[in-house]
Write a structure and sequence with these properties.
With 164 residues, the protein is of the alpha/beta class. It has a single domain, classed as Vaccinia Virus protein VP39 (Rossmann fold), CATH 3.40.50. The chain is globular and about 35 Å long. It has three helices and nine strands, in the order ββαββαβαββββ. The longest helix is centred in the middle third of the chain and has 11 residues. Helix content is 15%, strand content 30%. Helix 1 links the parallel strand 2 and strand 3. The strands form two sheets. Strands 3-2-1-4-5-9-6 form a seven-stranded mixed β-sheet.
């Protein structure tokens, strides 16, 4: 069973969690106006309104705990990762903007994270990093020399360390 923490308008989980259901300009991509629509919670399978840092589920319930572009919004990203690990049987997947990404600074982004932050946090809560990827999909225009590609998105995959 998969849980999507911070599902927004594109839920992928068997259970889908989000705290903010009202319209917000953040999801629309245009920060100057609120053209985003309210979440259709009735249309989202098994929707639960909850805070990502205080998930209302028992320990070790979900095979996969997934979150895309949510951790940069919470006041305590370490607590969110810890909660995701708590409810996971084994695997946690997180996507977020890289701390140097061109879209990292938005009014509702309160954290700017990088792979080192995730690796250090994982050690503290006994998670093992099995995959880490930084995508670079935007480049400085050719008129600038040299052509440099900036990191845009981090994808981290963790597994719970086996307790002996």
């Amino acid at each position: 069973m998969i849980i999507d923490v911070g599902c927004g308008h594109n839920p992928i989980g068997d259970v889908n969690v989000d705290l903010f259901v009202e319209a917000t300009p953040h999801r629309s991509g245009d920060q100057s106006k609120c053209d985003d629509k309210r979440l259709d919670t009735k249309g989202i399978p098994n929707f639960v309104m909850a805070d990502a840092c205080h998930l209302p589920f028992k320990d070790n319930v979900f095979n996969v705990v997934f979150s895309s572009h949510t951790i940069e919004h919470v006041n305590d990203p370490f607590l969110m990762l810890k909660e995701m690990a708590r409810i996971s049987k084994r695997r946690i997947i997180i996507k977020c903007p890289h701390r140097f990404a061109s879209h990292r600074i938005k009014p509702l982004h309160v954290n700017r994270l990088n792979i080192t932050w995730f690796e250090n946090a994982a050690k503290k809560i006994r998670l093992t990093v099995i995959s880490k990827k930084v995508s670079s999909w935007r480049s400085i225009p050719r008129s600038y020399i040299p052509i440099v590609s900036f990191p845009q998105e981090i994808t981290m995959v963790f597994v719970k360390s086996i307790q002996k």
